[in-house]
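Section 5.1 Outputs to date
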Amino acid sequence: MSAYQFYCMGEDGKNHLIAILPERRRNPERINDGSILNWAREVIGNGCNWQSIYFVEVNHRAMESRN
């Protein structure tokens, strides 16, 4: 299962992990960078400067195996 880690550049100049959201859409044609960021906006809200947000796609199983 894929998931997305969302990061925001803070005022201190460091990157901060702000959310991890799992990908659950079954139709991969609907998945694009814009739809991923729009989805994050709905979940996270407007508390961040969206100009400084980026995401990294990760394999959820790989994350579980690290623990």
